[in-house]
Amino acid sequence: AFSDDVAAVSLNPAALAWVRELGVASLYVEQFGGVGYGSLELSAPYMGLGASFLDSGWVESGVVKFRYASQSFSCAAAVPIGPVAIGTRWRFLRVGSPYEAHGWAFDAATLVRIGDVRVGAILDSAVSSPVVYQGGETEPWRRDIALGASWMTEPFADVRWTLATDVRGVLTGAWRLVGGMEAWVGPLAARVGWDGDGPTFGLSVRISGVEVDWSCAARSDLGTSHRVSVEVLF
Q: Contact, 102 vs 94, CB < 8 A?
C-alpha cells in the first residue's frame, strides 16, 4: 500500500498510476552472506519494467556440488480511476542452473487512496503458465493474495511519519504479517520493521533527486544481511 515510486514495479504495480516522474532504481545484496541477488527497475507514468537475478553460487552437499541460478523479467502498467488505481504485471522466469526451465505469470493489483490512508491488494499469478523444465517436469506458480494498508502524517514542515503493514498468504493459509514505521526529517529517513522472520532496520538520504537506501535484516540462525540500493528520479 505504501509503494509510490520505482519500487511500485515489484511491490504493487497499481501505484504506477500515480507516478509522475521517470525513475531508475538498482539493488544488490548477498543474502546472509550466501545467495547473491540483484535487480534493476525503471518507472514512468503508468508503466514500469524490471529485471532481477538470483545466484546461489556453488553449494557443496556431500561429494556433490550444485548451483542454482535464475533470472526474471517483468513489465507492468496501471490506470487511475478517481481515488482507485488498477494495475497488472507480467512476470517471466528463466532458470539456468542446475536445470533449464521457464514460465510466466500475470498478476492483478489495486490501490485505493482515501486522504492519508492507502489500501492495496495484489493477486499473484491470476493467470499463469507453469515453469517447464528441460526434462518435461512442470512446477505451477503459487496463486496468493497480499493485502496492505498504510497511514501517513506530516505533523511539522519537512517531517513525515508513515506506518505500513501487509498480510500475505491469504489463499495459501500460510498467513504472514509484516510491517514497519518510517520517519523522514528533511532529506534523511530512518525505518524499523518486522519482515515476518525477524527485525529490520534502515536509513536513507535523498539529495537532488538521488536517494541512497541502506537496510539490515537480522536472523539468529542465518546472521545479518545488509542491502544497499540507489534510486534516481528525473
A: yes
Q: How many helices (H) and strands (E) would you count in the chain?
A: 1, 15
Cis (ω within 30 of 0) for the bond into 13?
no
> Between the CA atoms of 48, 195, 177 and 27, what dihedral angle is there, to the nearest 10 degrees?
10
DSSP string covering 172-225: TS--EEEEEEEEEETTEEEEEEE-SSSEEEEEEEEETTEEEEEEEEEETTTEEE
* Residue of 188, 185, 131, 136 whose CA lies nearest to 158: 185
Q: How far is CA 22 from the centre of its chain?
A: 18
Q: How far, in Å, CA of 90 to CA of 169, rounded?
A: 20
Q: Which residues contact 179 (CB under 8 A, 6 or more apart)?
A: 163, 164, 165, 166, 193, 194
Burial state string for 174-203 with b = 16 or more CB within 10 A and e = fewer than 16? eeeebbbebebeeeebebebebeeeebebe
pLDDT tens, position by position, 165-191: 999 888 988 899 999 999 999 999 999
For 126, the enclosing helix (H) or strand (E) is strand 117-133
* In the block, residue with C-alpha cell 534523511: 188
Give 116-163 pLDDT, tens digit per residue.
999 999 999 999 999 999 889 999 999 999 999 999 999 999 999 999
Residue whose C-alpha is closest to residue 121's, from 110, 129, 130: 110
